[in-house]
Amino acid sequence: MAEGPAAAPPRPPRYFRNDAELSRRDPYKQLTASLNRLVTEHPPDKIAPGGGLYYGPISVAYLFYTLHKLYPDLTVDDYSMNTWSAAYIEQAQANMKQYAGPTTAACGISDDIMALLALFAASAKDRDTVQELCDYAAVTTDEDASNEWLYGRAGYLYLLRLVRASFVDDDDDNDDDDKKTLELIDDTAAEVIDAVLDAPRPWKWHGKAYLGAAHGAVGIITQVVLTDPTMAPRLEPELAALLSYQFESGNFPSHIPPGKDRLVQFCHGAPGVVASLLSIRRFFPALDDRIERVVARARECVLERGLLTKEPCLCHGISGNALALEDREFEHFLSYTTGHEIKCMERDGVLEKSDDPASLWCGEAGRAWAWAVADKRLEKRFLGPLHYLSFHLPSPNLGDFDLPVHLPSPQPPIEQLTYQKRAARNNTPCHSTSTSSAVSQEENLLAESLLAVSPPAPDPFILQHHRCRRPRPCCGARPASQVGLWVAQANGFGSGSGADEVGKWDGVGDRDVAGMDSAGGGGDGRSGCSLGGEWEVW
């Protein structure tokens, strides 16, 4: 008798018991170990493109950029955090042609085009790029667009808020151009919020009324209220109704009508609800006592069922669940996310490995962020969609919620600088040195910050400004730059396919630049930039 196909191996249990004594690990030591694993096992040129701020090279670049603000002197394999940020951005930009651009089914923080536009607009205070990002409101306000943050309008609101923060000065004395840009962002955000609030209730994604932070109502409410706190009174009844769905266990259902009490993770379940409620609690004073009780019960659920067997990560793993807890329990959960513990879980057959092991929300980059939170004793906030930046919206009841953003002082304009690439090691980032004897001290400092991700080459490099152009789906056939990129273009070679505008750096912002490869005259160029500016966490 012929044997049938072999049975699939049994899946590991969803979580393991939290019955060990509270423990902790040295967070700085674990942070550096995590970053070393990240760049060694998942170097920039080995990460598949795509994923925006959620997974893929842009998400990893976002981590390194943020860590540079916290650890300006920290290096990994002798390179700074900004250097690694530029290297991963370069990988994303090298694959621009693969990005279809936002659609009504995918217009949130996972879209690569909008993520690159937002990061460049915020870091360089580039008004033209802000206009391009705002033009995508034609997609996000379409009646068929989703509302959740990963693929929908809530994620677009996050990107707009990220950009807006860079155009608000400390003294609130913006010039006329900045004021016009702020008005553009505000008008765009208001239009998107109207679309969210006009959408039929309950909000649905793929036909289901989800409740969680990734695809559901609590994530949508959070992004709307943090964009415009004056919307809180309109959304208070919906938030109150959402709180009523809490299970006796303290967990929350993935969707309504409620099904089984299963998932305890950021995207579906108590951890994401806790993170969201703590971020918007101040705007719902009438619900304050109730939110406090809900959070306490939800944390009990996380303590009991939050040590997941999925590979530790922010979205659906121990690292994200840890961020929903208070200090001692937070550090205890993180002790299960070390490299040694993960290897032990894999050896024992209880580890469900990640499909995106490098990424910010699904892999090593997210584990590194959690260790940084522990080391610096930061507010326990998720990096990415819950890395909140407030709008400067005056409200007679709620006050002024501006968070100042400090950008680097402008550098002197540079007409033309020529650089010689220093030898690189196995496609890892290396610095470039100036071959010009007439450059100033500031120019030499800039030269030291340049990147060369490509293999060593003797060709001199010229710092130039490059914009990739393609038609936007919301603007018909009108070409416009998808994202402004700072590149070091090989002297004497073409600017790469898709580039039709090349100019010199205007000296604004703190710019690290990745090297561009040119295979033969006019070959496809690869470019990269480090993200200047400073965004404060709410």
TrEMBL record:
- State the residue spans of region: Disordered: 516-538
Q: Name one GO cellular component term.
A: plasma membrane
**InterPro entries per the UniProt record, alphabetical:** 6hp_glycosidase-like_sf, LANC-like
Keywords, ordered alphabetically? Metal-binding, Zinc
Pfam families from the entry? LANC_like (PF05147)
Name the residue ranges with Low complexity bias: 527-538
This protein's record includes keyword Coiled coil: no
Q: Which residues are noted in the entry as Zn(2+)-binding?
A: 267, 315-316
Q: Name one GO biological process term.
A: peptide modification
SMART domains xrefs: LANC_like
List the molecular function annotations (GO) for this entry.
metal ion binding
**Name recorded for this polypeptide:** Uncharacterized protein
**Originating organism:** Glonium stellatum
The lineage, from the top, is: Eukaryota, Fungi, Dikarya, Ascomycota, Pezizomycotina
